[in-house]
């Protein structure tokens, strides 16, 4: 068998040119290609990491909505009365949570069931409460007297407050509803097993 370089000198030249082009396969004969390859690999790794971070962020937000147990120690709960869900739509916050919140009017985001409601917290008054945006949350979620809401504090700063809300519907069986109406008081609570 004859040596290909002796048979056709152009063939060897073509092979050498192929190794000198930027997209050629990298090997020991082309050490100057390694920085380009390294940059390309690093860029690919960065893109892959950014993509994974974006997926994790979306998954975390979705998981946040699907998890039904409390993940924060700072929360408050309210059994809604008529004044919370009709006419005046007033929701005054309990003192234990007010201590954690700024004494100012601050934007609030209430998150429930993968949706956000924007309203304001009025903390610089005698009875700290949510503003009239609370009415939209009540109407959009069809809240009624007797329903309970658990407000889990997720973010709190002088610029923004964010609560994750858990809603517990107050549809009680008739036997229990009667017991609540006739016997359930703050001093005489009903024990439910």
Features:
single chain, 193 residues, alpha+beta, At1g16640 B3 domain, 2 domains, 6-stranded mixed sheet, globular, DNA binding, transcription regulation, transcription, nucleus, TF-B3 domain-containing protein
Explained architecture:
The chain is of the alpha+beta class. The chain is built from 7 helices and 6 strands. 38% of the residues lie in helices and 21% in strands. About 10% of the residues have low confidence. Strands 1-5-6-2-3-4 form a 6-stranded mixed beta sheet. The protein has 2 domains: 65 residues; 109 residues, At1g16640 B3 domain, CATH 2.40.330.10. One of its GO terms (molecular function) is DNA binding. Keywords: DNA-binding, Nucleus, Transcription, Transcription regulation. It is found in: Nucleus.
Helix content: 25-40%
CATH-level-4 superfamily name of the largest domain: DNA-binding pseudobarrel domain
Please, how many helices?
7
Number of strands: 6
From the alpha carbons, calculate the radius of gyration and give it in angstroms. 32 Å
Unreliable spans:
13-31
CATH class descriptor of the largest domain:
Mainly Beta
Mean pLDDT: 75
The major pleated sheet works out as: 6 strands, mixed
- The side-by-side strand order for the widest beta sheet comes to 1-5-6-2-3-4
If you consult CATH, what is the topology of the largest domain?
A: At1g16640 B3 domain
Shape: globular
CATH architecture of the largest domain: Beta Barrel
Q: Please indicate the percent range of residues in DSSP E strands (runs of 2 or more).
A: 15-25%
Distance between the termini: 93 Å
Number of structural domains: 2
Order of helices and strands: HHHEHHEEEHEEH
